[in-house]
């Protein structure tokens, strides 16, 4: 494995890790919002 | 909430730029590998995908344990979100590995211990999703605790049993070991 290949490999590894963090953050936020909507629906139905 | 939304937007932008830069590096900066040629470039996507798959399942494992101990729903949310992402990357790693195997091993799939255990790991997390999504019970977290030991073992098992079910070799690649050619190993 040459030096540019190694650099590309580790850069790609780092990029995918950041990509995972971004996806996870977005997904958790979406799940939290979905739960909030469910809660509000329940409140509305109870009222 | 407002602040976190701003950070998230920034992270999304940075991620998009990093992905563009990584793609440019893979196709424009990294040299052509001498033994395998252009198909070797798939490793720059295949290995990180497999790594993210494992990382996601490790996060699910930790989140599952914390959820079982504390009962706080946010950990269950984190575990479920992580397993969804992990599954996507596991499928990506399996598919890209298969695309690489066709020219390198002359077959799309072989019953190599690493491939089989990695697929079993993916199926275990499909089971996690099926258990966790509709029921809203801690069954999913229990499943993640049962499934996670298969993640590292799917890689290391093949290190110890390399000869078992080795991949078929083509005349052009018969000089290299069946599991991973020397020139491409990171």
Chain-wise SSE layout:
The complex is a heterodimer of chains A (47) and B (186).
Chain A: H1 3-46
Chain B: H1 2-29, H2 43-70, H3 73-105, H4 113-135, H5 139-147, H6 150-160
What does this structure look like?
The complex is a heterodimer of chains A (47) and B (186). Chain A is mainly alpha-helical and 47 residues long. Helix content of chain A is 94%, strand content 0%. Chain A contains one helix and no strands. Chain A has one helix at 3-46. Chain A is rod-shaped and about 65 Å long. Chain A starts with a helix and ends with a helix. The model of chain A has no long low-confidence stretch (mean pLDDT 93). Chain B is flat, with a radius of gyration of 19 Å. Chain B has six helices and no strands. The N and C termini of chain B lie far apart (41 Å). Chain B is mainly alpha-helical and 186 residues long. In chain B, helix 2 (43-70) crosses helix 5 (139-147) and helix 4 runs antiparallel to helix 5 (139-147). Chain B has helices at residues 2-29, 43-70, 73-105, 113-135, 139-147, 150-160. The interface between A and B is large, with 30 and 41 residues.
Helix-residue proportion of chain B: over 70%
Helix content of chain A: over 70%
Distance, first to last CA of chain A? 66 Å
Number of helices of chain B: 6
């Amino acid at each position: 494995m040459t030096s540019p290949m190694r650099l590309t490999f580790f850069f790609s590894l780092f990029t995918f890790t950041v990509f995972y963090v971004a996806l996870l953050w977005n997904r958790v936020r979406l799940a939290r919002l979905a739960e909030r909507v469910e809660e509000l629906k329940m409140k509305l139905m109870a009222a | 909430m407002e602040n976190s939304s701003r950070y998230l937007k920034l992270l999304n932008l940075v991620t998009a730029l990093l992905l563009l830069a990584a793609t440019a590096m893979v196709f424009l900066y990294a040299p052509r590998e001498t033994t395998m040629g252009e198909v070797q470039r798939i490793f720059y996507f295949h290995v990180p995908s497999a790594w993210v798959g494992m990382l996601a399942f490790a996060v699910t494992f930790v989140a599952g344990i914390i959820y079982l101990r504390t009962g706080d729903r946010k950990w269950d949310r984190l575990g479920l979100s992580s397993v969804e992402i992990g599954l996507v990357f596991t499928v990506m790693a399996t598919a890209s590995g298969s695309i690489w195997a066709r020219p390198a091993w002359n077959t799309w799939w072989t019953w190599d211990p690493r491939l089989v255990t990695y697929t079993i790991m993916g199926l275990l997390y499909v089971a996690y999703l099926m258990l966790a999504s509709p029921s809203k019970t801690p069954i999913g977290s229990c499943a993640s605790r049962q499934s996670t030991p298969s993640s590292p073992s799917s890689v290391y098992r093949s290190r110890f049993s390399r000869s078992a079910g080795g991949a078929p070799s083509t005349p052009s690649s018969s000089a290299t070991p069946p599991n991973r050619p020397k020139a491409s190993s990171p």
